[in-house]
Specification:
single chain; mainly alpha; two-stranded antiparallel ribbon; 5 helices; elongated
């Protein structure tokens, strides 16, 4: 996620799917996900949702998982649509967690600085 932060902070109209796909591939290679089955990894992709005025990359980014063959009878379009909604909800929750963590770190640094200041 740290690799995506600067890219997703940009306006959504300036994002390119191939750039985000490259970042995703770099992130996979940098984690234990690289040891997952190659068939699973090749189905993972980036999807950019509909851009609305003022939206950032955070608002339009989504991971997509391509299914075909016999498993597509289980994971129908409706099922994958539900997956997309669930992913977007969890993605926004994770973004909020990172934001709150950054705020908390800042507050703790400020608290330590205030303790070292001489009182009046």
């Amino acid at each position: 996620m740290d690799l995506l932060k600067p890219e997703l902070a940009r306006p959504a109209t300036t994002l390119y799917q191939h750039n985000l796909t490259g970042i995703l591939e770099t992130a996979v290679r940098a984690t234990n996900a690289q040891y997952d089955n190659a068939e699973i990894l090749k189905r993972l992709d980036v999807r950019l949702l509909e851009v609305s005025p003022g939206s950032t990359g955070w608002d339009v980014f989504s991971l997509d998982y391509h299914v075909d063959g016999p498993i597509a009878t289980v994971f129908t379009r409706e099922c994958m649509s539900r997956y997309l909604r669930a992913f977007n909800f969890l993605w926004r929750a994770k973004r909020m967690e990172y934001t709150l963590t950054d705020i908390w770190k800042g507050q703790m640094c400020n608290a330590k600085l205030l303790k070292t200041m001489p009182g009046e």
